[in-house]
Design a protein that fits this description.
The chain is α+β, with helices and mostly antiparallel strands. The protein has a single domain, classed as Alpha-Beta Plaits, CATH 3.30.70.1290. 34% of the residues lie in helices and 11% in strands. The protein contains four helices and two strands, in the order ααββαα. It has a two-stranded antiparallel ribbon. A hairpin with a 4-residue loop joins strand 1 and strand 2. Helix 1 packs antiparallel against helix 3. The relative contact order is 0.18.
Length: 138
């Protein structure tokens, strides 16, 4: 994939996510002309958090292990990570293209096993090969 100036910026900010969220490990990702795919691993001890997602489909911990997040409910979950990434890209992308905008939400999926991980990682790695079939391909 040949990245545009905004695409290069998106890649740069994607790679900087762990600088802002030290508990994040980045895995397979691809920056496409009109979207991004990526695997984000939230690497925190199990007893310190719920796995929170955009769709409020959190994995709840047993009550005795649940601890209140001292930074508030939205500071260390997937939504806050994606929000920070989008804000960083948008700030600079608007200087290049005043019409730049993200879709308001994002799609997430909790990877629950190794088989699912390999299917998703392969999809991400091969996504750019299918770009010419995308409805937004110009």
């Amino acid at each position: 994939m040949n990245l545009s100036e905004i695409g290069k910026m998106a890649e740069k900010y994607w790679l900087e996510i762990p600088d802002h969220f030290p508990f994040v490990i980045l895995d397979a990702f691809v920056i496409m002309p009109n979207h991004v795919h990526g695997i984000i691993i939230i690497d925190k001890p199990y007893d310190e958090h719920n796995v929170e997602t955009q769709n409020i489909a959190s994995l709840q911990l047993p009550q005795p292990l649940k601890q209140k997040n001292k930074f508030g409910p939205q500071s260390q979950n997937l939504s806050s990570i994606i929000r920070g990434f989008k804000i960083g890209v948008t700030k600079h992308a608007l200087l290049i293209n005043h019409g730049f905008a993200w879709q308001p939400r994002f799609y997430d999926h909790i990877i629950r096993d190794e088989k699912s991980y390999h299917q998703i990682a392969d999809y991400i790695r091969n996504n750019s090969l299918k770009w010419q079939d995308d409805r937004y391909y110009a």
